[in-house]
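Project outcomes to date are best conveyed with an example. Our students and postdoctoral researchers have been running inverse folding experiments weekly, and each run begins with a structure described purely in tokens. The record below, which covers 97 residues, was selected by the lab manager from last quarter's runs and is presented without edits.
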């Protein structure tokens, strides 16, 4: 079981999940696989460590691509993913000195 608590998209904010996202991983031959239906995430890696890293990177990229996008640029399916991100996360902006 992999828990994701926050994301770090390439912005000046930290994005946290309201409750940790739990993803069950499984072996498929010599690979590790993880799927997360609400965001259509599917990751396949050779090691569990690589799987965890890739899942984090994918959430970061997906957050940027969906949650930060203008609705006019998204398909209906993409709007569902955007809504999921917005309903399940909150943002803490970095404090500047």
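After processing, the design step wrote out the following sequence:
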């Amino acid at each position: 079981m992999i828990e994701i608590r926050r994301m770090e998209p390439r912005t000046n904010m930290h994005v946290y999940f309201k409750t940790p996202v739990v993803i069950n991983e499984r072996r498929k031959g010599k690979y590790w696989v993880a799927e997360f239906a609400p965001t259509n995430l599917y990751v396949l890696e050779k090691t569990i460590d690589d799987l965890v890293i890739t899942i984090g990177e994918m959430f970061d990229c997906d957050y940027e691509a969906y949650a930060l996008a203008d609705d006019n640029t998204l398909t209906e399916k993409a709007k569902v993913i955007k809504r999921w991100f917005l309903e399940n996360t909150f943002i803490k902006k970095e404090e500047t000195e």
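The helical segments are 48-67, 76-88. Residues 2-91 form one domain. The training component of this project remains on track.
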